[in-house]
């Protein structure tokens, strides 16, 4: 079951990861280990088990030029417990910094988390 969840998560993440406007030489920050690293950290909240709550939380992450997370914000909410779990998962992984004009820079990226 967990393998199916991870595979589904990776597929959805690949299809729906949102990068802000990109120009040649620009790259969005990404989790070290890819989206799989985030998927492994997601914990389905106990308080919503059995309530059939499904959907996607999108977390906007601001990452500095060293890969440090400066801020996280819920871009698309689902349920407060899911929102908290998504932020916790995103904050638990390290990030590769983004690039602007080929140089490391503060950048934002939206990370989708499926529940």
TrEMBL record:
Main location: membrane
UniProt keyword annotation of Protein biosynthesis present: no
Keyword Acetylation set for record: no
GO CC annotation terms, alphabetical: plasma membrane protein complex
One GO BP annotation of this record: protein transport
Residues of the TonB C-terminal domain: 29-115
Protein name, per record: Energy transducer TonB
Organism from which the protein derives: Stygiobacter electus
């Amino acid at each position: 079951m967990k393998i199916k969840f991870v595979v589904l998560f990776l597929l959805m993440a690949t299809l729906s990861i949102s990068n802000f406007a990109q120009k040649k030489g620009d790259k969005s920050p990404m989790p070290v280990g890819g989206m799989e690293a985030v998927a492994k950290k997601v914990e389905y909240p106990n308080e919503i088990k059995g309530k059939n709550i499904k959907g996607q939380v999108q977390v906007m992450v601001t990452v500095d030029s060293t890969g440090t997370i400066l801020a996280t914000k819920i871009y698309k909410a689902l349920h407060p417990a899911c929102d908290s779990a998504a932020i916790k998962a995103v904050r638990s992984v390290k990030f590769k910094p983004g690039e602007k004009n080929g140089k490391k820079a503060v950048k934002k990226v939206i990370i989708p988390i499926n529940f």
